[in-house]
Amino acid sequence: MRTTLPPEIEEYRDRHWHREGTLRIETANDAERFIEKVGFSACLTDSRQPGPSLYIAVCGRRDAVMPRNVQKDPESSQTWVLKDEIVRRGKVYYGKLARGKTMFIAPRMIPYFNAIWGVPKSKEKKQLGKDALAVLKVLRKEWEMATPDLREDSGVKDRKIFAKAIDELQAAMIVVPSEVIYHPKFTYIWMLAEGRFPKELAHKVSRPTALREIARCFLNGAGMTLPGELAKVTGLSRPEAGLGNRALVIEKYAISPESGKYFLSNNPLLDFSDGDE
Hints:
With about 280 residues, this protein is an alpha+beta fold. Helices cover about 50% and strands about 15% of the residues.
């Protein structure tokens, strides 16, 4: 996908996604500012996947590839440490969302992601499985619990079934990790997402608005969107990603000179005077 990008778009993404050595992410404060700037970001994806990534920003280079032995790699280790600190600080959203994509979301973008993937309380019993509902029932009472205690109290004691239930609740934007504990043994602390981001999750927007704003957010950082790219980065279906991109064309925020390709209309690096709006 990336090999077809014009050089000026690659350079645009280098700056906006911190794929340059001078823009390397080194601290949690740096990482939080980066996430706020890009709107949403993957955590540990590398150059083989499109979209902004904290790992690539820590590396500060366009061609960063995750090594096989990540435990001994200083850049992947630093990214992991930053991820834990960001989760602990709770200033940006972090969770495993659509299609199992683990992402950071800036607070300003939470209402839009929630409009697409969030499950309202009125629909929980219809859309969530029995194991996810059992875990949620305990968290609604306790608000925050470590994995072993939550498994015990919910009755979902099988590790794989519990992990699936937690993933389901994360994908529905109902539960998030609030801390990672390594001693005396490794475990996550889980909490209700509304406890950390009450205003953002209470802010309701329409689905068309959400699709448009997610598309706008990605295009701002990418400079150009290739066919299927927005869907792959966010987990949206391709038809819905297309709806979001076309909404930007309608308001003349984007230009689409050919099917499936969208460019920022105000990008000074590119001349679309002969393009088809």
